[in-house]
Amino acid sequence: MSITTTTKPAAAVIQNGVNVTALFDTIEAVKREPAIAGFQFRAANSWLGGGRNRSTIKGFRGAGREDDARLQPFTLDADEPAVLLGEDRAATPVEFVLHALASCLTTTMVYHAAARGIAIESVDSTLEGDLDLRGFLGLSAEVRKGYQQIRVRMRVKTTASSEQLTVLSKFSPVYDIVSNSVPVDVVIETSAP
Amino acid sequence: MSITTTTKPAAAVIQNGVNVTALFDTIEAVKREPAIAGFQFRAANSWLGGGRNRSTIKGFRGAGREDDARLQPFTLDADEPAVLLGEDRAATPVEFVLHALASCLTTTMVYHAAARGIAIESVDSTLEGDLDLRGFLGLSAEVRKGYQQIRVRMRVKTTASSEQLTVLSKFSPVYDIVSNSVPVDVVIETSAP
Question: I need a labelling partner for B119 at 20 to 30 A (CA). Which of A7, A51, A88, A126 fits?
Answer without folding.
Answer: A88
